[in-house]
Amino acid sequence: MSEDMKEMVLEYVREEYVDEDDEDTELDYDTPLISGGLVDSFSMVSLKVFLEKKYHIQIPDAKATPEAFDSVNKIVALVKEYQD
Amino acid sequence: MAYNEAARQHFASELTATREAGLFKDERYIHSAQGAEIEVEFPAGSPPKKVINMCANNYLGLSSHPEVIGAAHEGLEERGYGMSSVRFICGTQDIHRELEESITAFLETEDTVLFPSCMDANAGVFEAILGDEDVIIADRLVHASIIDGIRLCSAHQDSFKHSDMKHLERKLELHQDKRFRLIVTDGVFSMDGDLAKLDEIVDLAERYDAMIMLDDSHATGFIGKTGKGVHEHFGVLGRMDIITTTLGKAMGGASGGCVSGRKELVELCRQRARPYLFSNAMPPVIVAAAQRVVDLISQTTERRDKLEWNAGYWRQGLSDIGFDLRPGESPIVPVMLYNAKLSQDVSRDLFDEGIYAVGFFFPVVPKGQARIRTQLSAAHDKEHLDFALEAFRKVGEKHQILGLKKKDIIARFGA
User: Fold this and answer.
1) Is A48's pLDDT higher than 90?
2) What ipTM was reported for this prediction?
């Protein structure tokens, strides 16, 4: 389940933030997304909305910090916190 | 006292951290008027040195133009120095409204409202017109002021990959359930100098029933064959719902901005936009000078034509020397160096050679994409550009980067 979620989030991040012709960006579960400059804090909003819709959860704005969204692993941990 | 030693130390340590991260911005003192040649004190305390300015937004060379200065003098004499009021109390002179009407005619829109800056226009426009039933879909590389404005608005927020029309289309499909969709883009992107694909955006907006907002700050006055902006360049005049732009770059360069577009949207900004309602009216001296700028660029395309020639000559020159450039057709020509330290070293060496051009690196641009952003002006003569090209060649040779592409530069200097 956790592996599925990781893969799903990774795929979303790749689709949403990496350009098709970008051969330089290497992406894994621990790649720093925000501090690494791949996801800016502005487009982080769409990532939050995606997670909330996909997993039927509500992440409070105060918890949706750049630190909490900084890697796929951290995102999955955050999502799990708000699942039943 | 609240500002005690602990508070002082806290704030001082934040500054130290900024310095240690290499993000501290030092200001260089210019001892002359803005122009192609300026006198710069750098480092602080040094005698001012005459250098060629390759990094101003003075695209049309009007910042110190005698006619603009003359109009400013007249405005100052005839209408005074300050308005001591916001626009809707007792801050609107006839010349404010005349300038708004002139900008409307120039941009070929329905109406215009002036703001203290385009930063303020962008900060105020979204909240004034959209609500929580709507969605704003912005290009990921829009200017910081747009991001601030979007954050102040209760509409849903989304974004699309820079100039990626397929991604934008997916977002438009996704948000068909919203009341209004607003696509937001810069006309010319300030860090890369590329133009938004406005013709394709117009098609998508029509197909998916969306409005368009264009920030044309790096285009008004010179992009398009009569300088109206990126909407003229792509043949979509009259199709923009909102244009925000600045008087602080090509248009005389002092300050001021505006929201121009559909008359109801402009009127809503006049009624509701907080930076408009709660800031002083633009000073008469700036209004009078900006009016002269609009008159000058409406009469002749001479200056934007010269700028276009300069940009082509400069781009070709740098490319012939062997620099790695971002492709584009605007007067913003980024020289790619990829490595942050290299960009700082090249900038300093250029200064020694008499060229003022600043290095940009993370977080202003993405990591590993450091560059020297050069900007052309109609104030540059061919002699200035030839001198600057020679300086670039010399500095490029010193660092042995001429003829190298991205991979080679990163292999040698790191990303």
Assistant:
1) no
2) 0.76
Name the minimum distance, in Å, from the CA of B157 to any CA of chain A: 7
The span from the CA of B367 to the CA of B346, in Å, is 18
Tens of pLDDT, residues B153-170: 999 999 999 999 999 999
Asked if B355 and B392 touch (Cβ cutoff 8 Å), the reply is yes
**What pLDDT is attached to residue B1?**
67
Interaxial angle between packed helices B118-129 and B144-151, expressed in degrees from 0 to 180 and rounded to the nearest 10 = 30
Q: Taking the domains of chain B in order of start, what are their residue ranges?
A: 26-55+302-413, 66-299
Q: In chain A, what residues touch B159 (CB-CB under 8 Å)?
A: 42-43, 45-46
Q: What is the CATH number of domain B26-55+302-413?
A: 3.90.1150.10
Cβ partners under 8 Å of residue B173, min gap 6: B208
How far is the CA of A13 from the CAs of A1, A50, B105, B110, B414, in angstroms? 18, 10, 44, 41, 26
* Residue B298: C-alpha distances to residues B62, B66, B105, B217, B303 (Å): 14, 17, 10, 17, 11
* pTM of the complete model: 0.92
Q: Which domains does chain A have, with CATH numbers?
A: 2-17+28-82 (1.10.1200.10)
Beta carbons within 8 Å of B131's beta carbon, 6+ residues apart: B154, B155
Determine the CATH number of domain B66-299.
Answer: 3.40.640.10
Tell me the two tokens of residue B166.
């397929």
The string of pLDDT tens digits covering residues B49-102 is 999 999 999 999 999 999 999 999 999 999 999 999 999 999 999 999 999 999
Nearest CB to A37 within list B147, B158, B362: B362
B326 phi, psi to nearest 5 deg: -75, 130
The C-alpha atoms of residue B268 and residue B136 are separated, in whole angstroms, by 17
Q: Which helix (H) or strand (E) segment is B289 a member of?
A: helix B284-299
Pairs of CB atoms within 8 A across A/B: 28
B161 min Cα distance to partner chain A (Å): 7
Instruction: For B104-156, give the DSSP string.
Output: HHHHT-SEEEEES-HHHHHHHHHHHH--TT-EEEEETT--HHHHHHHHTS-SE
**DSSP code of B27?**
P
Nearest to B164, CA basis, from B194, B199, B195, B139: B139
